[in-house]
């Protein structure tokens, strides 16, 4: 560390940003911390947005990642509702969208991602994306019984949204160019089970086809045109086709920005600059590969590493990747990276009974483990992924 | 130190059991975390703080005495 660390600016007020603030304080950093957030909210949890918030089970106050008194104890200054607009790495200054300029000794980049959009249609009423709590509440208001909802994109968000909407009594169509929902995430065997699950719950699964445009009446969406020439009638559309790292503000910063912000295995991008969470494209310890991960556990883990790195402390080795999805009465939990091309083998239970565990193997090595409604058994898979056997 | 577990927020990841196996367990049927004791015994405090820190649902809160 070259300069003395007196003021740390954290750009991004999500789970990763919060983990850096937490860690800085836990490790005894006594200086100033300023957190910049594009949204007007203090850090909240995103996974429930497409689950309990969308279903109406929870109100947004349940999303807070800390109780008020714990936020206060962190003794940070929160500049919320204002995104960062530019970074000067040499002069150690961040410029905000409202023109304010913040000098720093240490900078945390934790700006996350924003939803990818289709080239057309997002100006129409009734076309939604889901990333923020405000997005989730807007979509929730559109989910009336009998409403025809078309979900574009059958990844985590799209499948969870389809499940919630179908349980709320909507007519749901799930569209994706992949051969089956979540093929890219889980490979063909599990994707077939996910497709069955949705079909059993009355969702029309239209995979193997993409969206070419929208039908509208008076500025409001009325249908989705597919590349097989058909039109799906729609009262509401939710577009969930992945996300993009939020790096526009770094365009002239001199940092290496491609798919996210490149950083080393200790999350360092430049002297005094660290990166954490969905936006970080990190050199993977061990393999030397670059990896960008959009999962909840990764935000906490990298936030911790990034903060330790700023303080000049040794980084901890990263844990085994973990993520999950909840759809209807099914919870799928995964350790590792389930490569779609890997060999998939059920190791306990039976897909027919709606409970099983399985491993993914590449060249005889276990690269991931998956638990379908088997949380306790799933825990044991973590060690198998660590051991590779 | 007192441990408060919000089972309604719990996502059954089992990360707490991995971090502090003598303090947390998971229910057989749905994997929701259960507390084996509300107050850790001497030597367990750090692993309990770790469990709270890594919980992907922020469902564990540690109240330091």
How is this structure best summarized?
Chain A is 23% helix and 33% strand. Chain A is α/β, with parallel strands linked by helices and 389 residues long.
Number of distinct beta strands of chain B: 4
Biggest sheet of chain B: strands side by side, in what order? 1-4
**Which range best describes the helical content of chain A: under 10%, 10-25%, 25-40%, 40-55%, 55-70% or over 70%?**
10-25%
Largest sheet of chain A: 6 strands, mixed
Gyration radius of chain A, to the nearest Å?
A: 22 Å
List segments of chain A where confidence is low: pLDDT < 50 over at least 5 consecutive residues.
Answer: none
Main beta sheet of chain B, described?
A: 2 strands, antiparallel
Q: Tell me the total number of β-strands of chain A.
A: 28
Mean pLDDT of chain A: 96
Mean pLDDT over the full residue set of chain B: 95
**Biggest interface between protein chains, with counts per chain?**
A-B, 24 and 18 residues
Give the helix tally of chain A.
Answer: 9
Placed side by side, the strands forming the largest sheet of chain A appear as 3-2-1-7-21-20
Spell out the blueprint of helices and strands.
The complex is a heterodimer of chains A (389) and B (65).
Chain A: E1 7-11, H1 15-26, E2 32-37, H2 52-55, H3 68-73, E3 77-80, E4 84-88, E5 93-96, E6 101-103, E7 106-109, E8 113-115, E9 127-128, H4 133-141, E10 148-152, H5 156-167, E11 171-176, H6 183-186, H7 188-200, E12 204-207, E13 211-217, E14 220-226, E15 231-233, E16 236-239, E17 243-245, E18 257-258, E19 260-263, E20 268-270, E21 273-275, E22 280-283, E23 290-291, H8 296-310, E24 322-327, E25 330-336, E26 343-350, E27 355-362, E28 365-372, H9 375-387
Parallel strand pairs in A: 1-2, 1-7, 2-3, 7-21, 9-16, 10-11, 10-16, 11-12, 19-22
Antiparallel strand pairs in A: 4-5, 5-6, 8-17, 13-14, 14-15, 18-19, 20-21, 22-23, 24-25, 25-28, 26-27, 27-28
Helix pairs in contact in A: 1-8
Chain B: E1 2-5, H1 15-19, E2 24-26, E3 33-35, H2 45-54, E4 60-63
Antiparallel strand pairs in B: 1-4, 2-3
């Amino acid at each position: 560390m070259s300069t003395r660390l007196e003021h740390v600016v954290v750009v991004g007020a999500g789970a990763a940003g919060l983990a850096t603030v937490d860690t800085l304080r836990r490790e005894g950093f006594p200086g100033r911390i300023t957190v910049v957030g594009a949204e007007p909210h203090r850090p909240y949890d995103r996974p429930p947005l497409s689950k309990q918030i969308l279903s109406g089970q929870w109100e947004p106050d349940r999303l807070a990642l800390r109780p008020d008194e714990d936020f206060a104890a962190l003794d940070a200054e929160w500049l919320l509702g204002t995104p960062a607009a530019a970074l000067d790495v040499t002069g150690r200054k961040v410029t905000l969208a409202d023109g304010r300029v913040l000098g720093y000794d240490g900078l945390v980049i934790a700006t996350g991602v924003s939803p990818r959009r289709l080239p057309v249609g997002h100006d129409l009423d009734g076309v939604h994306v889901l990333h923020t709590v405000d997005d989730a509440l807007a979509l929730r208001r559109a989910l009336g019984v009998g409403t025809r909802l078309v979900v574009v994109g059958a990844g985590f968000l799209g499948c969870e949204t389809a499940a919630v909407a179908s349980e709320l009594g909507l007519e749901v169509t799930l569209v994706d160019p992949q051969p089956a929902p979540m093929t890219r995430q889980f490979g063909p065997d599990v994707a077939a089970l996910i497709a069955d699950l949705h079909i059993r719950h009355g969702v029309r699964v239209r995979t193997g086809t993409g969206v070419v445009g929208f039908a509208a009446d008076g500025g409001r969406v009325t249908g989705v045109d597919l590349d097989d020439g058909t039109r799906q009638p729609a009262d509401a559309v939710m577009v969930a086709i992945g996300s993009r790292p939020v790096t526009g503000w770094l365009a002239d910063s001199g940092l290496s920005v491609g798919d996210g912000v490149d950083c080393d295995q200790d999350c360092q991008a430049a002297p005094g600059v660290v990166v954490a969470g969905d936006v970080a494209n990190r050199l993977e310890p061990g393999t030397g590969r670059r990896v960008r991960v959009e999962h909840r556990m990764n935000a906490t883990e990298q936030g911790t590493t990034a903060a330790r790195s700023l303080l000049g402390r040794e980084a901890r080795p990263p844990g085994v990747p973990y993520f999950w999805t909840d759809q209807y009465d099914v919870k799928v939990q995964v350790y590792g990276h389930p490569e779609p091309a890997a060999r998939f083998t059920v190791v306990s239970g039976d897909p027919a009974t709606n409970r099983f565990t399985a491993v993914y193997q590449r060249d005889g090595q276990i690269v991931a483990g998956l638990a379908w409604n088997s949380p306790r058994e799933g825990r044991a898979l973590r060690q198998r992924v660590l051991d590779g056997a | 130190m007192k441990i408060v577990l919000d089972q309604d927020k719990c996502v059954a990841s089992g990360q707490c059991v991995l971090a502090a196996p003598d303090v947390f367990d998971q229910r057989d049927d749905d994997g929701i975390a259960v507390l084996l004791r509300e107050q850790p015994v001497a030597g367990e405090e750090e692993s309990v703080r770790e469990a709270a820190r890594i919980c992907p649902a922020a469902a564990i809160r540690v109240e330091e005495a």
